Amino acid sequence: MKISRDWLSDFVEWFETDPQVIADQLTRRVGEVEEVIEPGALLEHCVVGKVLSSEKHPNADKLSLCLVQTEQGNKTVVCGGTNVRTGMLVAFAHVGATVKWHGDEQMTLTRVKIRGVESEGMICAQEELALTEFPPKPEDGPRPIIDLSKLKTPNSKLSVGSPLRQALGLSDVVFHIDNHAITNRPDLFSHIGVARELVAMGLASWKKLPKKKKPLFPKTELSFKRVNQIPHLIPRYCACTLSMDDIGETPEWMQRRLRVLGWRPINLPVDITNYVSLELGMPLHSFDIADLKGAVQIRTAKQGEKITTLDEVERVLPEGAVVLSDEEGIFDLLGIMGGLRSSTKNSSRLLYLHAAVVDPVAIRRSVIATGLRTDAATVYEKGIPLATTEEGFFRALELFLSLAPGARITSKMESAGENDRKKRVTVPMETFRSVMGVDIKGSEAKRILTDLGCVVSTQGKTSLAVTPPPWRNDMVLKQDIIEEVARIYGYAKVPVTMPEASVTPPLRDPRIHQVRDALKESGYFELLHVAFTSPQLLAKMGIGKDPVSVENPIGEEVSLLRPGLLPGLLVTAARELKKLDAKHLKVFETGHAFSRGKEWDECTMLVAAHGNTTLSDDPFLLLKADVIRALLPAGHRVLVRPSTTVHTMGHPGKSAELICGEKRIGLLFEIHPRIRDAAELPFRAAACIIDTDILRSLAPETRVFVPLPAFPAISFDETIPLKQETDHGRLLSSLSKLDPLLRSVENVDLFARDTTRTVTLRFTYRADDRTLTQEEVEKIHARVLTHLKKG
Predict the structure, then answer these.
(1) pTM here?
(2) Given CA atoms 253, 129, 174, 25 in this order, what sign does their dihedral have?
(3) What is the model's pLDDT at position 545?
(4) Considering the domain 2-38+172-206 in this protein, what is its CATH number?
């Protein structure tokens, strides 16, 4: 976005005149100024000169020897210009001026002899002074100089010796502000928007401007029917018709302002709409009514429709592009570029002028689809404030009525939509201080916000009630208000303080990591799934009657928060079993599970068989042994006992609960055949779910170091029938209490065939002070076997 200092001067009186200081403050508080452009920067020590005589150089065929009249007297100059002539007004650079030698490297002029003749300055070409307003003409030859003889200037007449910068009206300074820094501020894509910022920053004050009067509209209806089919995409619209006696001519001051910002003057109606866009940030467009056929419709384009735009390129429009059309088809790509058919021409006398706010998303989509980016589209896609529509429309009418010959409004004003009302935001003063880190006074905050156009009142003694101005769409929350105050106050004024925080590491519970490590040592693979699942999977597994939904899911398959880890483990296990050569697949996962109003951590283990199993490799029994073994390093001895609670996915006859410290920490169960079928598991599987939140709440047992035994042990293996009615846990516990030399009783094997079921137990005997003899151990073992037969 380019902003002219002279144009800003229409609105403000400057306190600060140094362009670099202004640019620096804009960069600090508004948006990065990429460049400060001074069109007349090379015109110091340059004046308007008059060629009194021009003769051929005595020692060079391609050079001329000229006598030039200046304010410092007549100067003798050697000139290489092919179009130099007597009586010509030229751009003359005195000795000491800086010029671009052949348009490239800058150099400072000195007195110099050229082919034996001393030259006291330079008659300049446009490239040597970087004056793009004077393009070379073919008839002037290959090396033309600037001809000022017929130039129309702001002073209407050039006088010999007058400073060239003043004579050409090139005292302006242009600030090039990076668009990316102000993408949330469509109001800044205008001179009036930047003027407001300058006043708020204290660099300028408002001039007393005349009050704007609303134009008088006749009651005459439009000469054609206008239909808006998409009011939801056009929230604000203003239009009317105009007539002119002649197309007129764009005044020189307007042309100069457009050129200095990089806009090419075209004709008066087009220049007026471009001028208003740059001044107020409201792009407008005028149509030649003679080119409109029948009713005008504002609608969206259909797939494959075309338009020939002002750049004479035929473009295929995307479906949904906002357009204007009549009986002959589309004649305007609204908000981006007008059509060639309805453009304003030198023959135009009747105009249809409109100003519209278009949905920024629709503009953005059309820009991407067509690849056509214009200055108007850049502003439109930011979201033009609704209040700017009427303001820009009235300003354009004011310029038409004052500049176009015989211009008059010929229809009533067509208006649709209303300006939005901004909501009041209350901000406590303490919030300003705590967020900004500065003890800013309420009066200072109120002044800044008032200068930005807000309506500010004091609410009680501790808060400010702020109503944002109509041109600010970005001031909605109290955080926005605080940011505005901080921005204008100056971030550089905020004292630099280093953040302070405790670096004490948080208390960590290593037990879950110990369980994970133990499971991996037992051959388990750890899995990690996302915490989302699908309604179809939960329905298939028969769980999650009221799961937690995700507000904005990326797909239905991840639209719910998982109510447990087991469904994901089952799906993965079914897939991985197809690739497995081993007889069992062991997997586990730790993570979050969710229900409405609740969230918890769990550790879920799964053992799935890859073939038919026997009693010795039953998944349920394998998992039971692994769970007991995995919890020991974490300091927990687990009791496994039958459970009356059956998990939703568990077999009702094969379910147990894990007891630790008289608390139930989880369930161990075989997967129900129905769930196995749903998960496509062909063979038996068992699962264990531990609530790790409960586990963390239990104090672990203190593990005491025990030295390695100094004396050997004697072991006996005994195979006994496995009876359904016998509680083997209690039996083994009672056996270990029979004699202090019996150190352990362990299951080492299970056997089942037909109706025969047996268990092999290993009895280990050891003494701490001696080596036991076979005889004394056999006596104790005989007593143990007697008790075993009774049990």
Answers:
(1) 0.66
(2) negative
(3) 72
(4) 3.30.56.10
